[in-house]
Write a structure and sequence with these properties.
This protein is α/β, with parallel strands linked by helices. The protein has helices at residues 9-16, 23-38, 49-55, 60-70, 80-91, 100-111, 128-140, and strands at 4-7, 44-48, 74-76, 116-118, 147-149. The protein has a single domain (4-149), classed as 5'-nuclease (Rossmann fold), CATH 3.40.50.1010. It is 49% helix and 11% strand.
Length: 160
């Protein structure tokens, strides 16, 4: 059985985005494309209703491309447990109030037993300083934390 990976919206966005002029963002876009081509079939991919909503927002052409990427990917249920955990993540400062949607991404992945949450959101999700608090909130609420990582981290050898 394949391990589950929750695709956060930034990963889907990077897959279809026009090449960015910022070299760091451009590198992340390329790493995302490589991960998609070389690694995705090794995992059971999942998203949430939040990802679908976010992917469908904005420029209609880009939104259509993002939603096309999501076709056939399992959409996890947003349960009462996920809502409660997301609220607790914000309440305990693991995720700032202004980024409460990021708490939903984490909570849906955690409450559905997903092994990895793949993201380029290094401000509020894949952030080494915040991981300890995020993990502590999950554990104190009876859940095994999801591993929060970037495509670059969840790979065998991208770019080779």
């Amino acid at each position: 059985m394949k391990l589950k990976v929750y695709l956060e919206t930034s990963v889907v966005s990077y897959l279809v985005a026009r090449p960015n002029r910022d070299i760091v963002v451009a590198a992340h876009q390329e790493l995302t494309r490589q991960w998609w081509e070389q690694e995705r079939n090794k995992y059971h991919l999942t998203v949430s209703e939040v990802v679908v909503l976010e992917a469908g927002a904005g420029n209609s052409e880009m939104a259509a491309q993002r939603l096309k990427i999501l076709e056939g990917i399992d959409v996890l249920e947003t349960t009462e447990q996920a809502l409660a955990l997301a609220e607790e993540l914000v309440k305990r400062g693991a995720v700032p109030v202004v980024a409460s949607v990021d708490g939903m991404h984490i909570a849906v992945a955690v409450t559905n037993g997903v092994e990895y949450l793949l993201t380029w959101n290094c401000s509020h999700i894949a952030n080494a300083k915040m991981r300890r608090t995020i993990d502590a909130v999950c554990i104190s609420n009876g859940y095994r934390p999801t591993i929060l990582c970037t495509p670059e981290e969840l790979t065998e050898e991208l770019g080779k």
